[in-house]
Amino acid sequence: MNKPTTQDAFDTPKVTTGPLPGSRRVYTSPAAAPDLKVPHREIELHPTANEPPLRVYDCSGPYSDPAASIDVEHGLARTRTDWVLERGGVEAYEGREPSPLDNGGATGKYLAREFPVRHRPLRRIPSPAGGGSGWGANGAAAASGPDGITPPQPSPQGEGAGKRHLVTQLEFARAGIVTKEMIYAAERENLGRAAAMAGAAERRADGEDFGAEIPEFVTPEFVRDEIARGRAIIPANINHGELEPMVIGRNFLVKINANIGNSAVASSVEEEVEKMVWAIRWGGDTVMDLSTGKNIHNTREWILRNSPVPIGTVPIYQALEKVNGIAEDLTWEVFRDTLIEQAEQGVDYFTIHAGVRLAYVPLTASRVTGIVSRGGSIMAKWCLAHHKESFLYTHFEDICDIMAAYDVSFSLGDGLRPGSIADANDAAQFAELETLGELTKIAWAKGCQVMIEGPGHVPMHKIKANMDKQLAVCGEAPFYTLGPLTTDIAPGYDHITSAIGAAMIGWFGTAMLCYVTPKEHLGLPDRDDVKTGVVTYKIAAHAADLAKGHPAAKLRDDAMSRARFEFRWQDQFNIGLDPETAKDFHDQTLPKEAHKVAHFCSMCGPKFCSMKISQDVRDFAAGKTGATAEEAKKGMEEKALGPKAERSEAVDPSEIEAGLKAKAEEFRAKGGEVYLETGE
Amino acid sequence: MNKPTTQDAFDTPKVTTGPLPGSRRVYTSPAAAPDLKVPHREIELHPTANEPPLRVYDCSGPYSDPAASIDVEHGLARTRTDWVLERGGVEAYEGREPSPLDNGGATGKYLAREFPVRHRPLRRIPSPAGGGSGWGANGAAAASGPDGITPPQPSPQGEGAGKRHLVTQLEFARAGIVTKEMIYAAERENLGRAAAMAGAAERRADGEDFGAEIPEFVTPEFVRDEIARGRAIIPANINHGELEPMVIGRNFLVKINANIGNSAVASSVEEEVEKMVWAIRWGGDTVMDLSTGKNIHNTREWILRNSPVPIGTVPIYQALEKVNGIAEDLTWEVFRDTLIEQAEQGVDYFTIHAGVRLAYVPLTASRVTGIVSRGGSIMAKWCLAHHKESFLYTHFEDICDIMAAYDVSFSLGDGLRPGSIADANDAAQFAELETLGELTKIAWAKGCQVMIEGPGHVPMHKIKANMDKQLAVCGEAPFYTLGPLTTDIAPGYDHITSAIGAAMIGWFGTAMLCYVTPKEHLGLPDRDDVKTGVVTYKIAAHAADLAKGHPAAKLRDDAMSRARFEFRWQDQFNIGLDPETAKDFHDQTLPKEAHKVAHFCSMCGPKFCSMKISQDVRDFAAGKTGATAEEAKKGMEEKALGPKAERSEAVDPSEIEAGLKAKAEEFRAKGGEVYLETGE
């Protein structure tokens, strides 16, 4: 089955570098930490625009910066390691002894080359009362602590022998400490804008946020508070020094994740590293390495050392490889060993399917598509085979202790998510979600950051119930959903069937959207599929930001619309999510350079261009060419309604405007009635 | 500017024929009219499925039927003409004298070849009191009739001299007459199923219909009643004998429209005819010919004579060509002449921008993107230039009389729709919508069928207000929207930015969705773009049908999900909206035929296939291979919860299920509170 990856595996991965068209990577230094260089992307606009460059969020890493020297063999600069060390509380140690099994027993030409540089892992310094491993201190005490539905409380600090060093972002946040990661993430959310700019009236967007609390301006203190309340996470393993920190939460910009990973069936180390670089180039905020088969360990090391974004994994996949793919043979020891292996490498978040309880498995028996989560099906098989609760559930506190020692965030997996419209919102799915809520409280008490995974396949009318229930049972921990797909009938187009659901659930409050590519249900995504998936999900996330009323979201839409009305074609391409495709599509019908300044396009031709006619109308009304909106309005009112003096009879636009507002209310009310009368 | 279309224009259009993979076109004859042959598509499933062929809606026309003989030079069979003639009330006449201007003055090699066959047009027989042209009888009387918000009433029948022959579907519906078009459309909506089948409990879908009244089974009488109430239309010009009638309304399946049309800049007659055939092959329910430039008349004739779906146009485009593209030179006479020209050809619906009133133009002055409707901008220019209300508004009753004489349906155009997120739901847009509501009443009183066009560019949180207001002010006339696009930042992906909005507004009650292709804002769609646009909009429409709870919608999703769980790969391809793309994607990673029966795919490989593991789990629990859901459930409960006898302690799945329902309510309530407290 395995495709030999010899040649690929030994090559140095070739990655895509350089800026996007018309863009450059810029850096700002937040007042709170002037030593930080926080990246953004600036899109240069045509001089006639009389607009400053458009600032947008940037996850592409140094790869898009011509000034940065990229050496994949060496990995990215580990700047963040200094932040971790200067905070103290961590120690470098030898780390776990690598085993051939870590790479699925691959040998000789089938063994992917090791990453050339080895870094000693960091972990939490064992506390006096903490016992050997350095994790687990105060576990019990903390676990018996607060009810997770209310925000987690600080765990006791400096109380005698039990004193525990702070390591996780949650622990610092609870202790009232603002970390550099928090400052960095806040600066990104503001696009490096000053508070004054952000607050400016014209920057405000309206919106319906369904109870979210999105601030005009994101302060580091706000990030700290959201993390302390468990409403946001900064996935940031202390061993991922290459990381450019970002925040995931309902009150921040909606983020997207791109899945990569080789499988037993296809692809190589080289391909995976480039897929990661390629995914973040187009806007992937985090990347999950879902590799299975051989060479998992080495593939992951290459990815982590070159990744500026948080990397997530599903450790049970590698654990299963270690027991030759026989679910029943999985043990807590093998799993524990895998957690430590990956935590030492610097994985930022783990998907843990601890909510698949023995008693829930029968609830899936009469489903149309059974269990569609790989981790979920593996654990269900284990549970039944052993007539026991899974070791993920029984050892959950031990898992927390390990993850807390490296600040690996939880992504509590929805192993029983629906795999079809028919199975959406069923008993199995919601039973697991309630368990995830209970586990969230325990993880919080242990100092772990937590997000919750969600479906899957859900028709539009059942999407909001997922969000509402997750908020209610998981204490507002960030929700992280896969789509959901809103219909099952379009294989080959599931990036679209799911973008519909993703945009909606993002609007309702989901913090991060896991992308779906056109190959979903059919095959492994290639480079083009990854790009299509990422761009599609940037659309869904942005549509959600707009609808939620995120203050910065509308800036980009407005810049695009102005470019459209002014026929700044090059600006339209560059402001868009995919400048290359936009330009290519334009040039297919109007290739000439001249057409990129033409006041029309191939859709209508010159005579039928509505925007050109609109400007003609403005010019005509104002009696001059290049009339401004104000000049046009005055002229139009004259022409449309006659001189102000004689307007007693004529309709006054402002009256219309006012009258309409009233009418709109009246009609909404009427609409409501109609609904109440006939709705069922 | 014009690309000579010589060669193309004189070729016989080559069109795509033959069935989709695994499909055949079948026909049923409704009890109410056994002479009708109503088309459906049946997808053959693999023998192991033990399922009858899956019946789906079919708009592809005879082109997908190998038994049909296709001769584009002759056009499709004009079966429907007999239905019209046997009803009486119409007369054949010489018709308008064609003029060179009809083809933009194209001559010689630039003039596209005429369609070889000429048919004498039909029109309503002038009533004794009706005056020469045969239209306008009772106009005034009827116009002073009912308030359009309440369903339109029958116009007076058999009252002395004023007796008016019935021609439009609305007139027949009001008179209580069920036409063959209504029977035909009802049969299609039911997928030819018998009432019993349709009513079967397991066929029912839940859903949230926002006050729509979707029946379990669609009777011809229901179609008649919906049309009589103005809540649905059957666009069916009496001169479009090639038509396979379909119904557009909130209580029927959501339909989609595909735009085609050459422009001054590109494409030819041949391309346009094939684009129409290609668009309906993938599921276009209606097609709009938005041609501009030369050869408009001849291009349209070729399209109509070969089209089994309703064809819509925007007559002002051709009228503008007749005055050399100078909006100010447009006159009622030129427009009237164009209406009759196109009505005689058999166009089924006209977009008429009669809502662009003089006083509303100034409301667009301060917009970011002004007026983005071609028709809207043309009329705005005319209004200002002449300091007058447009002739579309002042002559609206005359327009009604012409359209009623041929049963051309109104698609009241939203000339002031927003062209950007910034301009959504503004005063100009809603002022026009209210006027469209007033015009709807007049058109209804004149016996005309009416639908209303909607936006455009609207962020998610402002979409529902559009639907609610349209229902309220337009008396529930069918809404027909373009998208809406939910963000402006993704040129090259606007089929996706708009599919999000289209699915939502379709769910809320929009009856037909006008597709957007990837080339929107960039160029003219080619063949691939048309297919992508159509498939994307089938997804949006189907997602809406599912969410509304249309009884037949879920059948296809469930069939797909069963095929997935049983690894019937070929069935998965064929049940999907685009079998070719699905198969191609699958084969890119797993080309071997063997892999099409493999119990895994390239995404996970054999060891990690969740569905395979799910079946293993079922088999394990039941102690046999190929265990059914029931056997598995029993086994799982034994294994998970121990023998029934000893289950006092253990969790009982049924209890969980019950408990969850209660909890779910509780949480929804809680969620509500939270929203009220913090929402703004």
UniProtKB/TrEMBL annotation, chains A, B:
All residue ranges annotated as the ThiC-associated domain in the record: 19-91
Chain spans, region Disordered: 1-26, 125-163, 629-654
InterPro entries from the UniProt entry: ThiC (IPR037509), ThiC-associated_dom (IPR025747), ThiC/Bza_core_dom (IPR038521), ThiC/BzaA/B (IPR002817)
Domain of life of the native organism: Bacteria
Record: residues binding substrate: 259, 288, 317, 353, 373-375, 414-417, 453, 480
Biased segments, Basic and acidic residues type: 630-650
Keywords, sorted A to Z: 4Fe-4S, Iron, Iron-sulfur, Lyase, Metal-binding, S-adenosyl-L-methionine, Thiamine biosynthesis, Zinc
Pathway: Cofactor biosynthesis; thiamine diphosphate biosynthesis
Known role: Catalyzes the synthesis of the hydroxymethylpyrimidine phosphate (HMP-P) moiety of thiamine from aminoimidazole ribotide (AIR) in a radical S-adenosyl-L-methionine (SAM)-dependent reaction.
Quaternary structure (record): Homodimer.
Protein name per its UniProtKB record: Phosphomethylpyrimidine synthase
